[in-house]
Specification:
Keywords: Dioxygenase, Flavoprotein, FMN, Oxidoreductase. The protein is of the alpha/beta class. It is built from 12 helices and 13 strands.
Length: 331
């Protein structure tokens, strides 16, 4: 059966798939544009880069596609609101946010007619996001890469959030690696769509170095671990010498900070510098955020082929969408 489209606010994606927004220049227009062209929602990672650079990348993306381009900005960023407004001024279609909870973001969304998608990991925050005006809620579980808001798996936390979020689309995120799992989340759990990130690192279009991608391809299950982050949340990443040193208690604290990027930072290392190092392929010093199931992925593919596989696999077993249905336009 054909997959349904995904309507978020006034936007409609032909394929119910959001590409996760990976920051520090992992998810750029180079990745977001082909995702949007394939009918999904392409997402630029907006955290940890200058607002002017973000605006330039959004404008590049909007010139290259008529598809949906979103930006993901962590609430933990000190210049969160500046990045949000800069994104809106540059013409972005949607804002996705997490790593903290902003109430004011929904007022900004309404003022500019920009849909806001909130990433949550609990029924309480899901219900609150819906009440305050979220156009979509993304349920992100422990299987996700990067910063985590829960230690519970997706199939455990999704049902109770589905029970309380009724009026807007609910998106499943964390550990989804193929179209069969996509159909499972939509059929059995009532998801309106999915968000995937790590799979798109292993795309030809992703801007990270080949060394980054090869690290993903070499990863075994035990190589993907939890680590600490200056943001104040645990993070899921590859076990590199840097991550192992953190686990062994080595301190990388600095007396000064060049970036001053976070609202609250414990300064036991600079996350901006470590993520930049990983993007450039520094296997010794980089922080390589990674989903729990990255070890299952064994090929670098074009974005179009990733979509083809997800859609064909999902549609071969998909039965019906039991989640949110937008009201009829003729009603």
């Amino acid at each position: 059966m054909k997959l349904p489209s995904l309507s978020i606010g006034h936007l409609t994606a032909r394929i119910p798939l959001i590409q996760g927004g990976m920051s520090i220049r992992v998810s750029t227009s180079s990745l977001a544009v082909p995702v949007a062209e394939c009918g999904g929602i392409g997402v630029i990672g907006g955290s940890g880069i200058p607002a002017e650079e973000l605006q330039d990348d959004i404008r590049t993306a909007k010139k290259a596609t008529d598809g949906i381009i979103a930006v993901n900005v962590m609430y933990a960023m000190k210049n969160f609101y500046d990045l949000v407004i800069a994104s809106i001024e540059a013409g972005v279609d949607m804002i996705i946010t997490g790593a903290g909870f902003s109430r004011d973001i929904f007022k900004i969304g309404r003022a500019h007619n920009i849909p806001i998608a909130m990433i949550v990991s609990s029924p309480t925050l899901g219900r609150l996001a819906e009440k305050l005006g979220a156009s979509a809620v993304i349920v992100e579980a422990k299987e996700a890469g990067g910063h985590l808001g829960t230690d519970q798996p997706l199939r455990t936390i999704f049902p109770p959030i589905r029970d309380v979020v009724k009026s807007v689309p609910l998106i499943a995120a964390g550990g989804i690696t193929n179209g069969y799992e996509m159909a499972e989340m939509m059929d059995a759990y009532g998801a309106d769509g999915i968000q995937i990130a790590s799979r798109f690192v292993l795309s030809e279009e992703c801007d990270v170095s080949d060394e980054f991608k090869q690290a993903y391809l070499r990863a075994e299950k035990d190589d993907i671990v939890l680590t600490t982050s200056p943001v104040g949340l645990p993070g899921r990443a590859l076990r590199t010498p840097f991550v192992q040193a953190l686990a062994d208690g080595v301190s990388f604290a600095s007396k000064s900070c060049k970036h001053l990027c976070l609202k609250k930072c414990d300064h036991h290392y600079c996350i901006n510098e470590r993520l930049n190092a990983s993007r450039q392929g520094d296997l010794q010093e980089g922080l390589f955020f990674s989903g729990e199931n990255t070890y299952k992925m064994k090929a670098i593919l074009p974005v179009a082929e990733i979509f083809r596989q997800f859609v064909s696999q999902a549609e071969s077993v998909y039965r019906e969408n039991r989640g949110f249905s937008p009201p009829s336009q003729s009603a």
